[in-house]
Amino acid sequence: MTVAKGPDAFRTISEAATELGVPQHVLRFWESKFSFIRPMKRAGGRRFYRRQDIDILRGVRALLHDEGYTIKGVQRLHREQGVRRLILAAGVELDASEGDAAHEVAAPFQAPPPATTSEAAHSAALQPQPAPLHEPPVFQAPEPASIGELRQMAPLLSQAARARLTHVLGDLDAVRLRIDRLLTTQ
């Protein structure tokens, strides 16, 4: 007969993986991508997860798997809104006694100031991305020779394809701006 652990007991990586419904290697991968995931490590590198670690991981899982965020999107969400936002994504209610020290919680969410056009396109990376559609192409369009031809083809694109292209265009604009800045500083 095994005794169930209390809610505040430390969890091994296998127990945490089972509780979260993800493989152990995913937890190790998330630890490498998210600096705010820091389980306690004992001799030999064994990981032990506290209740607040599990709450944070549950939020990361919800954002990545359920809400469609990318890894960079979750990183930005943490940077801009703090750990509290990640925990709230998991549906975990925080009370006043679980304040900043227990979860290293940032200030409550405040709406950012209105973004400029390029910032708005770049901040789209934070928004949940639609799952990739695996639909066969409706037609085989020829390669456009000019921007004008591309604009004529725009009505033929699906809404999801148009959103993906808009996202890529925003990324390309950001890269162009960085290159311009680098070239002017040399």
Describe, in plain words, how this protein is organized in 3D:
The chain is mainly alpha-helical and 186 residues long. It has two domains: 11-103, Multidrug-efflux Transporter Regulator, Chain: A, Domain 2 (Orthogonal Bundle), CATH 1.10.1660; 117-185, no CATH class. It is built from nine helices and three strands. It has a three-stranded antiparallel β-sheet. Strand 2 and strand 3 form a beta hairpin. Helix 3 (51-66) crosses helix 5 and helix 4 (71-81) crosses helix 5 (83-89). It is elongated and about 70 Å long. Residues 97-113 and 131-141 have low confidence and may be disordered.
Briefly characterize the structure:
By secondary structure, the chain is mostly helical.
Shape: elongated
State the helicity in percent bands: 40-55%
Please provide the ordered H/E string of secondary-structure elements. Answer: EHHEEHHHHHHH
The Rg value, from CA coordinates, equals: 22 Å
Instruction: Just give the CATH class of the largest domain.
Output: Mainly Alpha
Distance between the termini: 70 Å
Q: How much of the residues is beta strand, in percent?
A: under 5%
Number of helical segments? 9
Number of domains: 2
How are strands sequenced across the largest beta sheet? 1-3-2
Residue-averaged pLDDT: 74
Task: Give the CATH topology of the largest domain.
Answer: Multidrug-efflux Transporter Regulator, Chain: A, Domain 2
Task: State the total count of DSSP E strands.
Answer: 3
**Secondary-structure content class:** mainly alpha
The biggest sheet amounts to: 3 strands, antiparallel
Contiguous low-pLDDT stretches (5 residues minimum) are 97-113, 131-141
Instruction: Just name the CATH architecture of the largest domain.
Output: Orthogonal Bundle
